Amino acid sequence: MIKSPPKVIAEIANAHQGSVTEAINLFQSSKDTGVDAIKFQIYSAEELLVPYHQRFNHFKKQAFSENDWNKIFEEIDREDIEIFADVFGLNSLEIAKSKKIDGIKIHSSDLGNIHLLNNIEDYQGKIFISAGGATLPELIDFINPLISLGKAKEIVLMHGFQTYPTPVHESNLVKIFQFKELFKDSVKYGYMDHIDADNELASTIPLSLSTIGIDYIEKHITHNRKKKGIDYYSSFEPSEMSDFMNNLNQVSSSFGDQSIFFTDAEKKYRAQAKKVCVWADDLPKGKTISLNDIQMKRVESEKPSLDFKHIIGKKLSRSVKCDEQIFKDQIEQKTLAIVVVRSQSSRLPNKALRQIAGDETIVHLLKRLDIAKQKGIVDDIAVCTTTSETDDDLAKLLEGKGYKVYRGDKENVLNRMMLAIESYPDHDIILRITGDDILIDPHYLSLTINEFLISNSDYTDAKNLPSGTEAEIFSRYVLKFIHQNCNDTSGTEYLTNYFKEIEEHFNASSLEVGNDFSNLRLTLDTKEDFDVISSLLDHFSASGIQYEYSLDDIAKYFSNNPEKSLINSTIQQRAIPKKFDTSVNWSSILENPLVSVYITCFNYADYVGEAIHSVLNQSFQDYELLIIDDGSTDRSREIIEQFKTHPKVQIIFQKNLGLNKTNNVAISRSSGKYIMRLDADDYLDPNALHFMVKKMEEMPDAALIFPDYYLIDQEGRLIAQERRHNFDTDVEMYDQPAHGACTMFRKAILEDVGMYSEKYDRQDGYEIWNKIAKKYSVTNINIPLFFYRQHEKSLTKNEDKLLQTRSDILSDLNKSSDSKDTIAIIPIRKDATNPPLAIRSFCDQSLIEILIEKLLASSRISTIIITSNDKKVLKYLSGYSSNKVILHQRDESISALNTPIELTILNIFESYMKIIEQNKFVTILNYEYPMMDIRNVENSLNIMQIYDADSSLSVRAVDTNFYKHDGKGLKPISNNKKLRLERDQMFQEMGGIHSFTIDWFQSNQTIESNKSTHLIIDNNSSKKIRSEDDFNSLEYLLQLKK
Description:
The protein is an alpha/beta fold and 1042 residues long. It has four domains: 7-270, Aldolase class I (TIM Barrel, Alpha-Beta Barrel); 335-501 and 515-565, Spore Coat Polysaccharide Biosynthesis Protein SpsA, Chain A; 592-792, Alpha-Beta Complex (Spore Coat Polysaccharide Biosynthesis Protein SpsA, Chain A); 822-1036, Alpha-Beta Complex (Spore Coat Polysaccharide Biosynthesis Protein SpsA, Chain A), CATH 3.90.550. Strands 20, 21, 22, 23, 24, 25, 26, 27, 28 and 36 form a ten-stranded mixed beta sheet that branches. It has an eight-stranded parallel barrel with strand order 1-2-3-4-5-6-7-8, surrounded by five helices. Strand 4 (103-106), helix 6 and strand 5 form a beta-alpha-beta unit. Helix 26 packs parallel to helix 27. The longest helix has 16 residues, at 527-542. The protein is globular and about 125 Å long. The N and C termini lie far apart (79 Å).
C-alpha cells in the first residue's frame, strides 16, 4: 500500500545559464509551485572533464564560483523547503557541505570514484545516487558501504537518464522493480524524468510511479522552455510544475520491459556521461599504484574504465602521463593458462591420451603452451581434470612431466578451474583452453591477450580463428563473479553462455583477425578430426617444425593439400546437451550467506592452508568463511593473509583467547543461518556443505547435523573411517556426542542455549551437545565428509585434561550435582588372605578406608553401606567415627561368588528402608581400585541424570584386537579395522562403578537396564589390584602422586 505521494524535486540544473540572478529567481519560482525540494548542480569544469574535452569551455562558462554560490544562498528563502545539490567532485562537495544543504546527489559517472565515496561516508544528510548508465556491480559497490555505515539520513536510488530528451519507450521503468528486489528496504527509490516536456506523458508517466511506492520524482524546471538550453527539452515551466503538483494523485501506468539491461539510449548516455579512471600525474614505470595516483574524469573514448580495486597496489609496466586513461596494458599483469581436459569422450574415446606425431595429444598442446611461456606470453600453466578414476592415468602422466594438475568435480568445469585460480592469487588474466584445442597458436594467444588488455576487457574471444585454435580470456574477477553468483554453474563447460548473461555489466571484446580461416576445422572431437590433425602434425614433424609451426603454416598446408580439409568438413559442432540456468541471482549478492564456516587457528602453519582451500573449493557456494588466528606465533598469519582479498573470506587476528571464547567470537561475527567450525589441522570433503545443508533444509526441526569422517595421520595418510550410528533411526540414548568440529548448527539455536561456556578451553563439542540434545532434535549423515587429523598437538590426545573438562561440564549441566541423594554400597567378600585385602595397609591406610574417605568427601553421597561376610573386615571397621558409615553383616547364603549381587542389594533395601526412601540413587563401588578419582562417582550420577538413564557403568574404550576360538582357531571379534563402525565399538567395564536409580531397582530387582549409559574414566582410575604385583606397583604409583 502506498502511504503517501512521492516528494517532488524541482531541478534547476543549468537553466540559469550561468546567471546568479536567474538562479535566485528560478529558486523562488520553483518554491511557489509547491514542490517539496529544489536542487542545484554544483560543479567546476576542472573536476568534471579533462581540459582537452570539446565541452570543457561550455561547462567552464556555466559553472558558478564559490563567491557566486555565496550570493545565491544569501538571497534565497530556505524556509519550508529542502535544498539538494548534485556534486561532481571534492570541491563541489565541500561547497555543498558549507551551505548545509539537506541532501547531495552523486552522478552515476562518479560511482567508481573512491575519493568521493571516502568523503561522503560521514555525511548525515540525504544521499541521492543516480543509477542511469550504471551497472549493478557499480551500484552495489557504492551503496553497500553507505548502508553498512548507517550515517546518511536517507539513501535514495534514482532511476533515469538524460538524452535530450529521453524517448518514452526507453524510460525502462521496470528497472525500478529490479532495484527494489535487489536493495529491498535498505534504500529509498526515486525517478529522474527527462521526457520531452511538450509531450503530455512527461506528466503522466512520473505521476504513475506513485502507484508503486516511489519516494521521489525529479523534474527539471525553467522559466522559458523555448530557449532550448541543454536541459530545457525536459523542463517544466512554473505553471506546468504547479499543474503537475495538483495532479500528483491522478496517475496511470507505463512500464518498460528492459529489465536490468541497458536500452540503446542508455548505452549512449553511459558512453557520454561515464567517468573513467585516469592518471592523476606523470608516473614512472615500476611505481606501485596508490589511490592518489588515480582520478575519475570523462574522456572522449569508447573504452571502458578500470575499477579502482583492480588497479591499486599493482605496478606500472610503463611510464604514463597525467590525464591519460588507465588501461590494463599499463599495469603489470600475470597470465594463467588453464587447460580443461578429460580422458573420456563419446565421440573420440580417450582422445587426450591418443598418440599423435610422437606425443599424447594433451602433451602436444602443453608443449605449444610451453613455447608461449618461454616467449613471456603466459606466466604459468595449469591443467584441470576430474577426480574420476578414468582420469587417473591422465593426471599421473602430466604430473610426471612436471605440470600442475588440479582435480575436481566431474560435472562442474568452473569448480575445477577455481581450484587452479585460487592457487595463483596474483594472476588476474585467465586463459581458458580446452583439451580439444591442441593446435593453439602462441602468436594469436599473444594478440588475444593484448586485445584483452588494451580494451580493458573482462572477457575477450577470438571467434574468427578456426575452431581448435581459438582461446578465451577472462578476468579473474568475472570468473569468480560467475562462480559465486550464478544460480547454476553445472553447465560451465559452456562458460561463454554464462558471460553472455552478464556482459551488459562487464566489458567484452573480440580479436579481429585479418586472414580468413573460416574453411578450417581444427578442433579434436571426432576420428575424422584426429585423422586430419595427425596428417598435419606428421607433416610438420617431418619438416623439422614439430612444435614451432604457426597458423599461417597450417593454412599453407591445407592450401597445398585441399583434400585433407574435406575429411572433417561435414562434422557438425556438438550441440549444448541441455539448457542450463545461466542467470545471476543478483539479490544473493546483498543477502546473508546461508552458511558461515569458521576456521580457528593457533600455530597450525603446516595445515591451515589446506583447511582454507578445502572450504573455498566446496561445490556448495552460498557460504562465508571466517578465519580466526588465535594469536599464532608461527607462520600461520602469513599464510592466512594470502586469502585476505577473497570475497568470501573475513580474517580476524586476535590475542590468544582459547577455543571456546573464539567459538563465540565466530558466532557473533557470522551472518549465516547455519554455522560450522573447521579446525585448522583438518579439512573438508568438497561436497561437505552440500550434503549437510541439503539435509538441514529438509529437516527444519533439527538443531544440528554431523557427518562421518576419516581419521588421518600427521602426513595426511588414511588411518580409518569412522562411521556413526544413524541418529534418525537407531539412537535413543544421546550419550555419544557429535565431534566438536565439522558439526553444523542452526545459529539461532546456538544463541538460544547461550553459545559456548567460556570457562572451558576444550571439549566444546561435548558441552554444546549436552546443552542442545536434551532440548532439540539432532541428526547426522552417514557419509565421511571431513578428514580428522591425529598428531601430537591434537587436544584430544591429552586424555587427563579432556576427562577433567568433561567432569566439570557434567557437574555444571546437572542441576542436582550437589544433592546428597545417593547411597554408596561397597560389597566385600571374605577372601583367603591374611589380613584380608580390603583392610591391608596401602600407603599407610587400608584399601577400604581409602575408598571410604573419598566417599565421605563427596557432594553426592549421603550414606555408605559396607556389606561383608568377613568378620575381620567388619571388626576392623567397627570403630569408624563417621555416622554416615553403616556396617551390614552379609549372610553367607548370599555371599558366594556365583550369587547375584541383586540378592545382597534386596537385603540391604529391606534392612534400611527408611534410608532408601530418603535417597534416589545407589552406586556400587569396588575397593580394589585405589587410584579411582571420586569425581568419577559423581560423574556416573550426573551423566545418568542428564541422559535420563536408569543405570550407568564406568568403562574404558578398547581399540585393541580381541579374538574368540571357534573350534578351528582364533577369529577376530574387535573393530580394529579400516572401517570403524560405532555399533562395533567395544567398552570394557573398569573402575568398579555401577550406579542405578532406586526406582528402577525396586521395579525390576536388577541393576542391568535397557537405558544404561556409560562413563569413560581416566586411565589411573581403571587400574585394579588383581595380584601382589598389582598391589606393589599401584602402591608405588600412588606414593609418587603424593
